[in-house]
Amino acid sequence: MSLSIDYKVEEPVVKEYTNGELTVIWKPQQCIHSGICLRGLPKVFNLKQRPWINMTAASSEDIVALVRDCPSKALSIKGVRFKEEDRSDQQVTLIPGGPIIVKGGATVHERKSTEVFHETVSFCRCKRSKNFPYCDGTHAQPKED
Ligand code: FES
């Protein structure tokens, strides 16, 4: 007797948006829904428009500056690697209804002997993340009863 299990491994979604000068890459699985993009450039990043990123609604310089601040790095610029910030410039930001974002470097002691360094890391405050203590964006979804 043989057993056959048919399963499909889903490839992560990667989308690209361009204005001819630069291309923004979006990896939705990586997004923690901090809303920094929506608040920072609402004419470019708007969930009510399709596509949700309108690359012609701001200058390339403004788009690059905003993408640089994406805490999860779900947004990036094709072919650009941002220089990491100076560690002495560490910032802690509380996202209303969302995570605590630490930028500028943080070493996390995940297990007794495991240390993981993150240049930017988002810690869950809602305690619903499936990747606790890290935020996975669950805070942005309605609570199940
Ligand atoms: S704060 Fe984002 S999943 Fe909890």
| Strands, total number | 6
The secondary-structure class comes to: mainly beta
In the predicted model, the low-confidence regions spanning at least 5 consecutive residues are: none
Bound molecules: FE2/S2 (inorganic) cluster
Sheet of most strands: 3 strands, antiparallel
> Class of the largest domain in CATH?
Alpha Beta
The helix tally amounts to: 2
CATH structural fold name of the largest domain? Alpha-Beta Plaits
Strand order of the largest sheet: 1-2-3
- Average pLDDT, rounded to a whole number, is 86
Question: What is the radius of gyration?
Answer: 18 Å
Shape: globular
How much of the sequence is in beta strands? 25-35%
Q: N-to-C SSE series?
A: EEHHEEEE
Q: From the coordinates shown, what is the CATH architecture of the largest domain?
A: 2-Layer Sandwich
Tell me the distance between the termini: 43 Å
Brief summary:
The protein is mainly β and 145 residues long. It has helices at 36-40, 60-68; strands spanning 15-18, 23-26, 75-77, 91-94, 100-111, 114-123.
Give a written overview of the molecule.
- The protein is mainly beta and 145 residues long.
- Helix content is 10%, strand content 26%.
- Strands 1-2-3 form a 3-stranded antiparallel β-sheet, covered by helices on one side.
- It is globular.
- The chain starts with 14 loop residues before the first strand and ends in a 22-residue tail after the last strand.
- The mean pLDDT is 86.
- FE2/S2 (inorganic) cluster (FES) is lined by residues 32, 98-99, 124-126, 128-129, 135-139.
